[in-house]
Amino acid sequence: MKDPGIFELKEIDTRWNEHMLNIVQDSPIESNGLKIFFDRHPDIFFLPSLMSEKLRCCGFFLRNKLEGFAMMLNRKVFVNGDIKLVPYFGYLVVSRNARGRGFLYKMSDFFFDEYSHPASVGYFIVMHGNTAAIRLLNRFHPKYPRVPYSKLIGYWKVHNRLLFFSCRKNSKYRLRKAQLPDTERIVKLLQDENRNRLFGSVVTKEAIIRYTKFLPGFDVSNFYLAEQENEIVGVCCAWDMSAVKTNRVVEYNRKLRIIRFAFNGLAVLLRYPPLPPKGEPFRNVTITDYAVKNRDPAILKTLLDRIHNDYRKKKYHIMIFGHALNDPLGKAADYIFSVPVISDIHVFSGLKETTEDFESKDYPWIEMLLL
Predict the structure, then answer these.
(1) Average pLDDT, the chain
(2) Cα–Cα distances in Å, from 151 out to 135, 282, 306, 352, 355?
């Protein structure tokens, strides 16, 4: 570990927003040759605050300059079918010149004293292949006894689906956008699905109404519905997050360079917007929630294909869809022109036994609005 220098940990809030956004931009995530950062302008606190019951942010100051930060969000989620308040650890970013100075060790006293009893289990994700982050897991130091234990419990797969060609239409289901009177049926479908997901989001009518008030460009019509014999058998929510978050590639790996070259070559012929150069934002639509009757992938595929076609007409680059790697519903996302990104899902606890004994038969869920 490097000479720690003069460092200090402080609780920080929105007054540090611009400094935090600059650190994110200067510290891209690196995985398998890809360098990417998630630009959360104008307010990095906006979605974490909206999606949590309680939020704490720890700032890492080196010689009185903010050089890194992390957030802990207490969220109401499903665990083994019951609603529990569970900590989600994320938004960890440390500038290059401050790495290797024991920030994670020191941060444990700030965050993890609350989660050291047997009933407490939290979770976090790490992009697969991010070796710098993975090396830090389950490393302990006698001076910092509150560093939590962690355990890999699954994988989260995100499909970045290129909207270049249109998809075939399926006439088996009637597809339409939701209206306000559909809200209760939407909530029932999503709750029935999320109850059987580990860390599944708790969806209520009040929450949906709150999102329509606070999320830019979001209303009930963002929910696509599939109907059969006058019954809603599927729901899928699509939202353009660009008002609060964009994805920017700093360095393409070899595979993505080839894809971008081919895509942009065809784009010229078909008068379609090319994929952006390094550092510029993609025009994306994100699938934030979905549920289908009897967990039928065919219904979900029909909904995804309709959203694909709608946003292709609007000249979007990519549709983003995530699922647990072992979830059969993931078959609905199979598409030849798609770039997958895998992340590792971990649970953590202050007790080794709690972490090692943690088991769940449910498919884990990661809230796409927080990635």
Answers:
(1) 89
(2) 13, 33, 38, 9, 6
pTM for this structure?
A: 0.91
Cα separation of 299 and 305, whole Å? 10
Phi, psi of 52 (to 5 degrees): -135, 160
Q: φ, ψ for residue 186 (rounded to 5)?
A: -65, -45
Give the torsion through C-alpha atoms of 81, 82, 87, 89, to 10 deg: 10
Q: Three-state DSSP class for 61? A: strand
Q: Hey, is 287 helix, strand or coil? A: strand
Of residues 293 and 268, the one with the higher pLDDT is: 293
Cα separation, 211 vs 93, in Å, equals: 27
Burial 24-61 (b: 16+ CB within 10 A, else e): bbebbbbbeebebbbbbbeebbbbbebbbeebbbbbbb
Are the beta carbons of 73 and 45 closer than 8 angstroms?
A: no
CB contact at 8 A, 34 and 253: yes
Single-letter amino acid, residue 102: G
Phi-psi region of 339 (alpha: psi -120 to 50; beta: other; left: phi over 0): beta
Q: Which residue has the higher pLDDT, 244 or 101?
A: 244
Quick check: 255 and 263 in contact, CB under 8 A? no
